[in-house]
Amino acid sequence: MQAGRISFQVDFVDGRALTEEDLHEAGRIGPESKVLVALAKALRTLHASPVPPELEAFLKEVGDVGWGGPHLAKWLSYAEEKGYNRLPLLPGLRDLIAELEAIAGPLGPNTFCHFDLLADNLVLKKDGSILLVDFEYSAPGQPFMDLAVLAMGCSLTAEEERSLLSAYLGKELAESDHYRFKAVRVLAALRETFWGVTAELSQSSALTAEEAIAYADMNFGKFTSLREAPTSRTSGVPLSGATLLARKGGFEVPSAFF
To answer: Which residues form the Aminoglycoside phosphotransferase domain (predicted)?
Structure first.
């Protein structure tokens, strides 16, 4: 009896992976950046694509996953089951997630999302278009979470972030939407932290234990920094206070982003 055989078909793409500096430069240039225009087009095309049936089935299996997406919910539950305590993450975390999701506002329809939009998963082709690669973590979710993973992962500045979001939306970014996006960005940092935590606990990823710990620590640092940064136009207000001020300042019951 012969062993089974797995075959892969690989298409050659004439281009190069983007770097974080490419994305910083595109954000600084703004609407005139060809890279930014191509990236926005690629992301809009992705989010307008039909969700594969197997991913729809996955979403039904995990249930309502909110802004954090299916992976954050799964990885958080796994860390809780394992009694994770190396980083001070778990105490009060579900309340914080609920608060961040309240700031982010109502969910729009789930779309086909990549959920791993790191710079090296964006390939700039010779014709100037951008190809997305590595769909291992793709799932139905909120498009702004995809953008938050990208902005957070590349540590975009506020202005670079505005350029990205405005290019994607095809219009000037409203202050209220940027305020809400900041909450989604904190969730994105939390999501990446728990990817590292899961790799650290399971020891089943391609990373070594030391690499998994380093990845979790790096993103925990981003999470802590983003969480402590002013979430709105108020300065030095704790997140719960920012939520109350948001409700008094015109952000109550906002519409979905899309």
So the answer is: 32-168
pLDDT of residue 8: 55
Tell me the backbone φ, ψ of residue 129, rounded to 5 degrees.
Answer: -80, 165
Read off the pLDDT of residues 92-120 as tens digits, 9 standing for 90 and up: 999 999 999 999 999 988 899 999 999 99
CATH code of domain 15-247: 3.90.1200.10
Distance separating alpha carbons of residues 85 and 96, to the nearest angstrom: 17
Q: Which two tokens stand for residue 240?
A: 């719960």
Helix (H, G, I), strand (E, B) or coil at 175: helix
Residue 233 CA to residue 29 CA, distance in Å, equals 25
Apex CA 48: angle with CA 136 and CA 24, to 5°? 70
How far is the C-alpha of 251 from the C-alpha of 258, rounded, in Å? Answer: 16
Q: What integer best gives the mean pLDDT of the chain?
A: 86
Please give the helix or strand (H or E) that residue 72 lies within, else none.
helix 69-81
Q: What angle do CA 166, 229, 157 make, to 5 degrees?
A: 35
Which residues on adjacent β-strands are paired with residue 112?
140
20 in Cβ contact with 155 (< 8 Å)? yes
The answer to whether residues 78 and 227 touch, using CB atoms and an 8 Å cutoff, is no
